[in-house]
């Protein structure tokens, strides 16, 4: 037996392996011709013949096969009937059947093309039976290539699901950690700063020494700055403003952004009382917060517009800036984690994010979340 190397999907094929082929053929003479045609092949073939549809079904159910070769017209049925019977078998065989090749002298080109459109691998006229080995080899290669792609796609889908679950878990952990830090800041640092403020106020009221009074007043001013900073940290860590609703929270973010940057910022809400779950509110709030942070750092904008709508059962949040914009290479940078993080955050509530930008015109970020999609207990827990 001759051995040869055949390139398939980047790997060599072992030509000493036996190829098990089922031959659906009512003519013993034609079966012998097919057997003889395959004898000159570098592969070893095991060619089994069946004549009836019942024996065909029994064979495909009980025997492992590398390919099926079928005459087109047989007594009482056709190759198409056999093909349909193959696809009515248990799930594994029906989903991934072996390559099916029509070998016939009684099929027109139109019927052959229709058969291929139905999923049959190939067809060959009996006058060209010497090409049978080549046709079978090609059909098996295509079949294996498709099967490898299906497996690769399944693995990729599994990896993407795991990545989405990891992202969801990380977002949950981040929010829970922020809530814990916010409680620490509020209860410990906030309480201590308030106590110091009262002590300094007592010193100012009771001290007669001008130098001590100056130091006490200066310390009070610095303390007030520290109290303001702790309040800003609290807002960023755990936005209590969300208790007043998403619209109020977005308006507060816009006002704070405008005050800090002197960039005119407008908010338009189609409905002042948008009824949203806590999880969706938090995602929309963080999206606005991140978008405004990016605008302040990179956009060089002279105006920002924020639109909120819950029309047609979809929450739509659009943040648009009139700035220098971004080109596609910046959006696709491997380290563009801010935008990528917003995409993943949107997925945690069943939403999606669209980013469009034109250099010299500005950038628009649109968050869309279907409101009819129910949240899992996990999402609800994240939002608490």
Brief overview, please?
This protein has 384 residues and is of the alpha/beta class. The protein has helices at 28-39, 53-62, 79-86, 91-95, 109-117, 132-206, 210-237, 246-261, 278-299, 328-331, 337-347, 377-383; strands spanning 7-8, 11-12, 18-24, 44-50, 67-70, 73-74, 77-78, 100-104, 122-125, 264-269, 303-309, 314-321, 352-358, 362-370. It has 2 domains: 7-154, Response regulator (Rossmann fold, 3-Layer(aba) Sandwich), CATH 3.40.50; 242-384, Heat Shock Protein 90 (2-Layer Sandwich).
Describe it.
Helix 8 packs parallel to helix 9 (278-299) and helix 9 (278-299) runs antiparallel to helix 11. The longest helix is centred in the middle third of the chain and has 75 residues, at 132-206. The protein is built from twelve helices and 14 strands. It starts with 6 loop residues before the first strand and ends with a helix. The protein has helices at residues 28-39, 53-62, 79-86, 91-95, 109-117, 132-206, 210-237, 246-261, 278-299, 328-331, 337-347, 377-383; strands spanning 7-8, 11-12, 18-24, 44-50, 67-70, 73-74, 77-78, 100-104, 122-125, 264-269, 303-309, 314-321, 352-358, 362-370. The protein has a five-stranded parallel beta sheet, with helices on both faces. Strands 10-11-12-14-13 form a five-stranded mixed beta sheet, covered by helices on one side. It has a two-stranded antiparallel sheet with strand order 1-2. A hairpin with a 4-residue loop joins strand 11 and strand 12 (314-321). It has two domains: 7-154, Response regulator (Rossmann fold, 3-Layer(aba) Sandwich), CATH 3.40.50; 242-384, Histidine kinase-like ATPase, C-terminal domain (Heat Shock Protein 90), CATH 3.30.565.10. It is of the alpha/beta class.
